[in-house]
Structure formats: C-alpha cells, structure tokens
Amino acid sequence: MIRQIFGFIAKFRDPFTYGTAVVVAAVLYLTASSLDRGQQNDLTSLFLLMTLALAWNLVGGYGGQFSLGHSIFVGVGSYATAVILTLLGWPLIPTMIIAAVMSALIGLLLAYPLLRLRGPYLAVGSLGMAVAAYGWMINWDFTKASQAYAMPKEAQVDFATMYQFATVLLLIAIVSIVALVRSPLGLRLVALRDNELGAASIGVKRVRTLLPVWALSGLLTGAMGAVYAVQQGTLTVDGTFNIQFSLDAAIICVIGGLGTLSGPFIGAIIIYFLRKYSAEYQNYALLIEAVVLVIVVRFFPAGIVGLISKGFRAIVHRRAAAQK
Amino acid sequence: MDFVNNLVSGLLLGGLYAVAALGLSIVFGTMKLVNLMHGQLLILGAYLTSMLIAVIGGGDPLLVGIAAAAILAVLIYPVQRYIITPVMAQGEEPPMTVTFGISVVITTLLIIIFKSSPLPTWTVDYATTQWEIFGVRIREIYVIATGIALLFVLALMWILKRTAFGRQVRAASIDAEAAGLVGIDVKKTYARVMSLSSFVAAIAGVLIALSFSVAPTTGTGWLLRAFTVVVIGGLGSLPGTLIGGFIVGLVETAGAVWIGPQYRDVIVFGVLVVILLVRPNGLFAKVAKA
Lengths: 324, 290
Prior knowledge:
The structure holds two protein chains of two kinds.
Chain A: H1 2-11, H2 13-30, H3 37-62, H4 71-88, H5 92-114, H6 119-137, E1 149-150, H7 159-181, H8 184-194, H9 196-201, H10 206-232, E2 234-235, H11 237-240, H12 244-256, H13 263-276, H14 282-299, H15 303-323
Chain B: H1 2-31, H2 38-56, H3 61-87, H4 93-114, H5 125-128, E1 130-133, E2 136-139, H6 140-162, H7 164-174, H8 176-181, H9 186-211, H10 219-233, H11 238-258, H12 264-278
Antiparallel strand pairs in B: 1-2
Helix pairs in contact in B: 1-6, 1-9, 1-10, 1-11, 2-3, 2-4, 2-9, 2-10, 3-4, 3-9, 6-7, 6-9, 7-9, 10-11, 10-12, 11-12
C-alpha cells in the first residue's frame, strides 16, 4: 500500500511539486490582507531567507561549490534597485527585474574565473572577492560610500505588497530550481559534483554546465536583494555587501541538508525562529547557530533532511520486513 | 628616501604577515585542511594574553604570550582530535565548514565576554618606538615580528626535518593510511600539528595586537591576509610563506602609497583572487617539502 502511494507520487512528481508550490503561493498571495503588518514583515523576512538559501543551495548544494561570495549578489541587487530608481526613475517592478538581471551578469562574471578553482580554494577565492567588493563599495562615492543610501519614494510600498513580492519571488525560486535540477542540465550538474572525472569522460563540460547555474543563482539572489532593499528602505554597504548573507545561506543549507529541495526551507525556518526569539541575545543566537552547525556536520553530515529520510526509510524497511 | 622608507616598512610589515600565516601553512601542508578558524586563533591568542596579563597584574606581552600560546595549544588539541579529524573522512569541504563554525563560536564568545570594542593596547616601549637608521624610519615591533618570523620558520623546519615528531608528520602528510600501517597514530599527529599551529598563531596574535588594533571581529581580515600569504608562497611551503609575507607586505604598502590607504583590503584581496585564478597552486608552487 505504502509502496503504491509512493509509486503514484513518483509518477506525478513534477506536476505535484509545481502544483503544490503554485497553490500554496497563491493562497499566501491572496490572503496577504488578512495578516497584520508585523506578520507581513516577518513572513517577508522568512521568505527572503528561504530564497537566499535556495539560490545558494543551487551552487553550494547541487553544484558542490561552497560559495562565500553570495553577499555580492545581494549587494548588487539592492544597490542596483536603489540607483536605477533614483537616477532613471523607472517603475519599481521593472527596476527590480533589471537589478536581478544585473546580478545574474555579475554571477557570470565572477563564476567564469572562479570555476578554475575547486573545493576549499573556491570558498576562499569567493570570500576574497566578497571582501574586495565590500572594500570597493565602502569607498565608492557613486553609491555614497559608507553613508546610507535612502531608497526613493517609488520604492515605498505597503507591507502587503512587499509580502506579495517576497511570495512571488519564493515561488519563482522554487519553480526555476526544481525545473533546473530535474532537467538534463541539473543531472549534469550533480554528476559533476559527485564525480568530476567520470562526468567529464562522458562529455560533460564543467564550465558550460556551471555558468548558467551560477547565473540563475545570481539572478535569484539579486532579486532577493532587490526585495530586501524595498523592505529596508535605506541601504548601507554594511547591511547589503555583508559576508553574513553568504554565511547565513551556507549555514541554513548545511543544517537543513545540502543539495536537497526541502533542506533550505527547514534550515531557514530553524534559523529564522532561533533569531526571532533571541533578538535581545543576538550573539547567543549566533553562538547556538555555530554550535548547531558544527554538531550537524560532525554527527549528521546529511543535515536534518538526511536524518528524517533515514528514519523514514528505517520505518518502511521494518514494515516491508514484517510483511515478509 | 620615501621609496626606501616604504620598501623597508613594507618588507618588515611582511615579516608580521609571515608569522600570522605560518600556522595556516603548516596545517595546510600536513593535513590539506583549509583552516577557516585561523584568523580567530590569532585574535584569541591576543585576548588570552590580555587576560593573563590582567590575572598576573602586569608583565611583558610577548613573554606572557608564550604562556597564552601554550594554553591555546592545549585548548585546541581536543578540538582537532574529536571534532575536526573525524569529519576529515567526509571530504574536503565538511572539515572546512566545521572550522568555519568554530571560528564563529570563538568570535561570538569573544564578543559576549569582551563586547565588540577593541582590545586595549598594551603600553610597552617596543610597540611604539621608531628607529631611524640612515634616515630610514622603521617600527621596532615590525623588526621584532620579522625576527620571530625567521626564528619560527627555522624552528619549524628543524622540527619537521630532524625530530621524530616531524618524521611522523611528514609520513602522515604523504600517505596517512601507510603511516597508520607502520604504527604512527595519525589522529594524534594531526591534533599535535593543530596545537603547534595554534601556538605559533597565538604568538602572532600578540604581535598583531602590538602593531594594530584588535577586536573580536578582526579575525576574518587576518585569515584572508594569511591565506593570501600562503597562496602566494606556495601552499604548505615554510620558506615560501616567509617570501609570501614579504610580497604581501610590499604590495600592500605600495598600494597604500599609490592608490590610497583606504583601498588596502581591495588591493590585497584583489591580488589573492588574481593569483588564485592564474596560479591556483601558488606562485612558487613546488612539491611541498614540509
């Protein structure tokens, strides 16, 4: 019986995943007005954290490339939104789309050289890029250097709209990531991660596979930065080009489960609530986070998702054994 | 004269960078581990020294630093033995993630205990004295740092080449499995290497605190500087680390003079990224001897 149910789900896996995501997002979108402003703001933060983690997971989890440079995308997305709105006065939504596209281009630009590096070198190389970008931005007069950059009036939307932006963005992130991971490109991506030599021997090209993945990750993270800019209202280099974004994304994915679809969601919810309910003890929250990270890597390398599926498998096996 | 002045101060600053990078270099050279908590070990060394001075009620930072370094080495031993080494079987990235997690633990603990304000500076003569030799002005602390860098490189090379422990380390770094088969306890050896590395790091941390302002969050910047030094010098090579330190010191001083001191970080980390891209194994990459 259980096996048949699973077989049924497997058969309709793709429509099931997309359908669920669309329905849930539609419900969230339409019920925006029933939430109060605090809830709208909280959920926006949570959805943005999820989007960030999902986008990072594409590169760091499925691609096996431990990027510590994703803060650049957040920064580019948010500052591009602010600068375009201020200088060109475009409407908000096209601006955010253009900002995301710019971030995707930056993704290509960074990934092309970074892809020569592997493993820990890529992590350190991308960290160097992030710190260099921060050092550049904090001195760049065009974006008011270390001073705050106020978002113009066009970006001041009410909480419900902001929440709807975040919902739509999260939906786009889920659908595009599922589509990519289950496409031939996604298979090549995972093959490269699991066995680069083996994948290369059957004709998988490393750079050609990874570039579009970095571009998509940059696009989604940049869009997240754009919505984040709208939520914040005022931008600072410290608040946007902060390495903390890369670290958050990596911690969330490692705790939830690297290279899984549900891992970033579970990790994001854990981290979000840990921070929310220990806001006065910010440093203690970070301490707990770090300790949890170490414990998860040390004892549960597959993350919480790995732990759950292991337990689940054990139950199914026991059932199967009992039936025999 | 300005040119000579900058050249000399750049080189001597490089000596300080070399000490800061030595610990990272030996850990990478023997375990192939990218130790992301190295920056925090440096800072922790400075804070431990400061605490010890407060407990003793005075004392020379460098001498007290030796005691602090010994304490740090003892503290780090179990961390490597029971947390990092077991994870090393999973591949390259998990141990790196663990060291990153520990680095956040160290930073937040320091912030909780000492708040995020910088460490109060120690008032010792050699931290502020400037010598003037043939019109060239040099900071005494940089000279001391460069001297300690040379001393440590020679001492570490002697340990690795001439002692039984050094032979075990080299055997474990060439082939851990074979080393295990001939009776070397590889796990203990790794933990000892990490202890040695944190001992050197703590002394380097004291030198850093004597020359610059140190706060709980300054570790990451020093990690990246140390990493730049190690990458330029060839990963795992001790003399290379010394040369790498001098190069980074010169580049940073030159950049500060020609482009502007506020772009120091951009220049150093830009150089790091460019070198990683052009020569992923370092400028002077050879088969690591250490």
